[in-house]
């Protein structure tokens, strides 16, 4: 969404000699994924996806990424513990955290029951759910 943010890291990326591996797409993630899906060559072609943007759309990303990531590939979701609030009674949750908390709880339940992936919940930082496509 924001090229300025990418450009903060760009000198480090260049210093590491990996700029040629990056295709920066300035776009909302949903439309970027939909565009990738228009080309059949992209389907089941990715090894790994890391999702760390708008929590409200995580399930929509999941449906698209399952088509883009190959069998055995990984889709990782950040913030799936949402500051620990997913395991707290609602009365202890700050008002500002409530909305995303509900989306994340819904995603966690969904992923736990999704037989297209095997999952591992990693309790590091704000929680990462690693999904391996079956
Ligand atoms: C928490 S930061 C990601 C940090 C990144 N994963 C890292 O480790 O450096 C969230 C990023 O998602 C971007 N973002 C938010 N909503 C988005 C959307 N709908 N589509 C694409 N990017 C979005 C924001 O501009 C921001 O750069």
From TrEMBL:
Under InterPro entries, the record lists:
Cation-dep_OMT, SAM-dependent_MTases_sf, SAM_O-MeTrfase
Q: What EC number(s) does the entry state?
A: 2.1.1.104
Q: Which UniProt keywords apply?
A: Lignin biosynthesis, Methyltransferase, S-adenosyl-L-methionine, Transferase
Q: Does the keyword S-adenosyl-L-methionine apply?
A: yes
From the Swiss-Prot or TrEMBL record, what is one GO molecular function term? caffeoyl-CoA O-methyltransferase activity
Q: Which GO terms describe its biological process?
A: lignin biosynthetic process; methylation
**Associated pathway:** Aromatic compound metabolism; phenylpropanoid biosynthesis
For this protein's source organism, the top of the classification is:
Eukaryota, Viridiplantae, Streptophyta, Embryophyta, Tracheophyta
> Belongs to which family?
Belongs to the class I-like SAM-binding methyltransferase superfamily. Cation-dependent O-methyltransferase family.
This protein is called caffeoyl-CoA O-methyltransferase
Domain of life per record? Eukaryota
């Amino acid at each position: 969404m924001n090229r300025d943010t990418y450009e903060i890291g760009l000198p480090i990326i260049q210093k590491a000699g990996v700029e040629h591996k990056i295709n920066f797409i300035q776009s909302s993630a949903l439309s970027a994924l939909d565009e990738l899906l228009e080309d059949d060559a992209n389907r089941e072609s990715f090894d790994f996806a890391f999702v760390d943007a708008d929590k409200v759309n995580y399930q929509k990303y999941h449906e698209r990424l399952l088509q883009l990531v190959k069998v055995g590939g990984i889709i990782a979701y950040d913030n799936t513990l949402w500051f620990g609030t997913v395991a707290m009674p609602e009365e202890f949750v700050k008002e500002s955290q409530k909305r995303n908390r509900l989306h994340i709880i819904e995603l966690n339940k969904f992923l736990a029951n999704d037989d297209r992936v095997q999952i591992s919940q990693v309790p590091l930082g704000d929680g990462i759910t690693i999904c391996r496509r079956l």
